[in-house]
Write a structure and sequence with these properties.
By secondary structure, the protein is of the alpha/beta class. The chain has 2 domains: 2-118 and 283-295, 3-Layer(aba) Sandwich (Isopropylmalate Dehydrogenase); 123-273, Isopropylmalate Dehydrogenase. The chain contains 12 helices and 11 strands. The chain has helices spanning 15-28, 40-47, 70-75, 80-89, 102-112, 149-166, 187-197, 225-252, 254-259, 261-270, 297-312, 315-326; strands at residues 2-7, 32-38, 55-59, 95-98, 123-128, 136-139, 172-176, 203-208, 220-222, 279-282, 287-290. Strands 3-2-1-4-11-10-5-6-9-7-8 form an 11-stranded mixed β-sheet, with helices on both faces. It is found in: Cytoplasm.
């Protein structure tokens, strides 16, 4: 039985959003055990009558705020995030999920859980829907602002292993840049390009421009965390705007909307990022996942699903084994 700990506090929505997702997922997957970390007075009334739910509560009323510094996060050893990470450190659970502060989460997991290898940096790997059915995986989307070319290469290798292990296909890998020409970008772009180009274990496409992402030009995109986060939020904002435009036109032309309802439904369903809101924190010794700071129950649910799929496919074991082939 896999054990999943969920940090139910420290994000923009209420505790109930995290708990509702756990309840819904547990109803379909009774082979899972959950540890809910947060205010027991808020959590217990939501779960006490759910006989199918295998759970325990770790009580705390303290949380790490979104604006808290990393130093403050370290000092809050009774916070929901810190306690959640300690559960994984002490092998009381198999994976953890949080929607809390990204900077605090990276720092605490890095120090309490540790990295697979000292040469790598951890990265957030997130799924982005496209006009193709497959979509693409994107990293780093916010864990680290800067990378050396070698560090991005290692990140790409780990991400490649993630996709082949969990989803069973060989991804077409690209590197985010302002142009497709080989000489574009900064020095680290040239380094990671040369490393990937000469690696026969990956299907390397070269540099990918942001404008081609929604068209599905690649299955896996590698970037520094600063650029990656900017692009990801721009895509999410653009897709939200498209949804608002569609709703506005419903009111102007309800008859036209009626005839095109199925097409519109498929578009909104495809580009609803909440269906795939989880990010795997690649590079750590154990399985750690992050979801949006504004996550609702739908986003927590999709993150739990990704955690479960990763556990079923022994993700960390496979990534660790792969890292041993190119790191020494």
């Amino acid at each position: 039985m896999f054990r999943i700990a969920v940090d139910c506090m420290g994000f923009e929505n209420s505790v109930s959003e995290a708990v509702k997702a756990v309840i819904k997922y547990a109803k379909k997957h009774k082979d899972l055990s959950f540890v809910l970390v947060g205010d027991e007075n808020q959590i217990r009334p939501l779960v006490e009558n759910k006989k199918y739910l295998n759970y325990r509560i770790v009580h705390t009323t303290n949380e790490i705020g979104m604006s808290d510094s990393v130093l403050t996060a370290y000092r809050k050893k009774d916070s929901s995030m810190y306690l959640t990470i300690e559960l994984l450190k002490n092998n009381e659970v198999d994976t953890i999920i949080s929607a809390g502060s990204s900077s605090a989460y990276v720092a605490l997991t890095y120090n309490l859980i540790g990295k697979i290898h000292h040469k790598i940096k951890v990265g957030f790997m997130s799924y982005v829907p496209t006009v193709t059915k497959r979509g693409f995986w994107f990293l780093d989307v916010g864990a680290n602002k800067e990378y050396l070319g070698e560090e991005l290469y290692y990140l790409g290798k780990m991400a490649n292993t993630f996709i082949t292990s969990v989803f069973n296909y060989q991804p077409r890998l690209g590197v985010l840049n302002i142009g497709t020409e080989k000489n574009k970008g900064f020095e680290y772009h040239q380094v990671v390009y040369n490393l990937l180009e000469n690696d026969k274990t990956v299907d390397f496409l070269g540099f990918i421009e942001p404008r081609g992402l929604i068209e599905g030009e690649c299955d896996l995109l590698v970037s520094d965390g600063y650029s990656g986060n900017l692009v990801l939020k721009s895509l999410e904002g653009a897709l939200k705007s498209v949804g608002k435009i569609l709703k506005k036109n419903y009111k102007i032309n309800p008859l036209g909307a009626l005839f095109s309802a199925n097409v519109i439904y498929q578009i909104t369903k495809t580009f609803d990022y909440k269906n795939n809101a989880g990010a795997v924190v690649l590079g750590l010794n154990k399985l750690v996942l992050k979801t949006h700071g504004s996550a609702d129950a739908k986003q927590f649910y999709s993150t739990i699903r990704l955690a479960h799929e990763s556990l079923l496919n022994n993700l960390i074991e496979k990534i660790t084994k792969e890292c041993s082939t190119f790191l020494n």
